[in-house]
Amino acid sequence: MKTLKNIAYSILASVFVFANANAGELSVTGSAKATYVILSVDGSASDDDAGKGLGMSNEFTLGASGELDNGWTWSTNIDIDADTTQDDSSIVLGMGGLGSVKINISDGGLQKNFSSSQSVYGTPVDNGEGGTYTDAPDTGAMNSLRYTTPSGLPYDISASVQYAPSSGENPTASGNTGGTLDTFNEDAIEYAISATPMEGLGIGASYYDPDSSLTGQEEEGGAAYVTYDIGSFSLGYGLSRYSVGLEPNTTNEAESYRNKQMSVAFNVNESLSISYETIDADKNFETSTSDVTMEVDSIQAAYTIAGMTLSVANEEYDNHDYTSGNKMKETTFAMSIAF
């Protein structure tokens, strides 16, 4: 970890020894989405039922890009959410054959947790209520420094390493802001790799390693995926693991989460796509008799017309919220417009 910290500091220092940037270009991009969600049950007293809801979400990104006097490129962005919160900002320096450096303020991690998903509206457990689904954590909400290898490597290999000097979250950190404390982890590092070994085949993995102070079990997590496109079909399979940080001598705490995703999508034509995805999410305790598996099945369809996408997604949960016997059905109708 210490060596990687020194490398990160060296990369950051080298970034600022070059000349001024040329005038850049400003852009505005974003999206707006309206949803109608129905949560329903089968009548069991242990089932979840929150009824119907109408909602809207929108976000736009202010971006700028340009070129330095030495030929390197640069870009920067800041996101503005529906409540006018300004967060998720970054600066990226493209160094040609040397790769790129990205400075993140809560702008995204490297995790491959959902990279296998072929669902046409979205990963089922990330669409709405979600059922307290727990996955491998990452540095995405932290403030961090990332290095990514240059493009053009054999088999389209892309590898990245991201270092967060403080693992607490601070999505609106500005200049001269100190670190954000975290109860158990001082800092964190994350690795990711992806490749295309043959046409249509994609593989990748990620690993999250915080500097945990817990001595019973250190926190860590990771994910791996494989996808394959053949004609109008696309297939995906993914695994993720999360070991919870624990103090010694705990009593039947949740010690790990293990998730498996399988999905398939079919492009009916240029406008219409349909998909099916199933997820098994295991919550494992120190006492194995308490283990429980949450199962999720999702059928989705998306239709694009005149720059607008109309989607419908239906999810069915067994052992929702990792509670045995708890069921939930979630149906989402969505209208999305990107600009």
List the helices and strands and how they pair.
Layout: H1 2-15, E1 25-40, E2 51-67, E3 73-81, E4 86-94, E5 100-105, E6 143-148, E7 158-166, E8 185-198, E9 201-212, E10 220-230, E11 233-243, E12 254-267, E13 272-285, E14 292-305, E15 308-318, E16 327-338
Antiparallel strand pairs: 1-2, 1-16, 2-3, 3-4, 4-5, 5-6, 6-7, 7-8, 8-9, 9-10, 10-11, 11-12, 12-13, 13-14, 14-15, 15-16
Any overview of this molecule?
This protein is mainly beta. It is built from one helix and 16 strands. A 16-stranded antiparallel beta barrel has the order 1-2-3-4-5-6-7-8-9-10-11-12-13-14-15-16. Strand 13 (272-285) and strand 14 form a beta hairpin.
- What is the correct CATH architecture of the domain at 33-57 and 109-140 and 152-173 and 183-338? Beta Barrel
Mean pLDDT metric: 86
- Categorize the overall geometry: globular
Q: Which class of the domain at 33-57 and 109-140 and 152-173 and 183-338 in CATH terms?
A: Mainly Beta
What key attributes describe this structure?
mainly beta; Porin; 16-stranded antiparallel β-barrel; 1 helix; globular
